[in-house]
Amino acid sequence: MSLRKIFGAFVASVVAFAALPSQAAFKVEITVNGGPSLLIVDDGANDAVSGVAGLINYTGSVGALANVTVDTATSNRTDGVGNLASLSNSIAVTNLTNSVLNFVVKVTDTGYLFPVGPTFGIVSEATGGASAGFLGGTLRSYFNPNDTEFAQQVAVTPADQNFGLGTTTGSIMTGGVTPYGLTQIITFSLDAGVGKSTPNLVSTTQVLAPEPTSLALIVMGGVGLVGGAVRRRRASQST
Question: Where are the domains of the chain?
Fold first, then answer.
């Protein structure tokens, strides 16, 4: 192949890459008692699985107040194409103080291009439970047609989902707009006392372009996505 053709192919590849839609960073933000926030960015300094796109893991402290373990997954950077999109989070916290701790955890990603269709079904699931130190918590999932990180544009459920009830599931139907963003707002409180801890709080938001009967089956069966997603990614890291 001549140098002219090689150069032409290179230029064409650069132009094609530049034309791809850009994606804002996948992020988790943790705030305790209204203080300074801990921001964890996919592949950033606080991400223990840096180099693995679409997965965030953080195990460490939030100031001197609490120890936190966070596993978060987005389908946005791993599937490429597909009939669904998802944002999933798992968090567990242990108190390091003799004070009540109030948490706000925000999970967000933007630039979702899938699924494709005139209508989206969006399902939100919260799974929690009880523990000696857990004072309760809620999830609110949002679909953001404005494709803005941390936006709270279209609530998936009319009311907050309660982690203390075991598993709660809600859904909406909305117009199929791409690109779009997803946001989860997770709030919970932890009782005073060193060593007091929460159960594992799991939240999942899933977007699909289904037939109505398919959406009904998903709502009845639950989503249950984050555990499998995190386990699969951890397994791939260990092999």
Answer: 25-238
Digit-coded pLDDT (tens) for 193-233: 999 999 999 999 999 986 655 555 555 544 444 444 444 44
| Mean pLDDT score, 131-160 | 96
- As a three-state string, the secondary structure of 45-70 is CCCCCCCCCCEEEEEEEECCCEEEEE
Q: Rounded CA gap, 216 and 208, in Å?
A: 12
Q: What is the pLDDT of residue 183?
A: 98
pLDDT over threshold 70, residue 104: yes
Enter the pTM of the model: 0.81
- Phi/psi at 24 (5° precision): -70, 160
Beta bridge partners of 169: 125
- Give the separation between CA 227 and CA 217, rounded to whole angstroms: 20
pLDDT digits (tens, 9 = 90+) for 25-64: 799 999 999 999 999 999 998 999 988 889 999 999 999 9
DSSP the chain: --HHHHHHHHHHHHHHHHHSPP-PPPEEEEEETT-PPEEEETTSTT-TTTT-TTEEEEEEEETTTEEEEEEEEEGGGT-SS-SEEEEEEEEEEEE-SSS-EEEEEEEEEEEE--S-SSEEEEEEEEE----TTEEEEEEEEEEETT--TT---EESSSSPEEGGGSEEEEEEEEE--SSEEEEEEEEEEE-SSTT-BPPPEEEEEEEE---HHHHHHHHHH----HHHHHHHHHHHHH-
| Residue 83 contacts residue 129 (beta carbons within 8 Å) | no
86 residue type, one letter: S
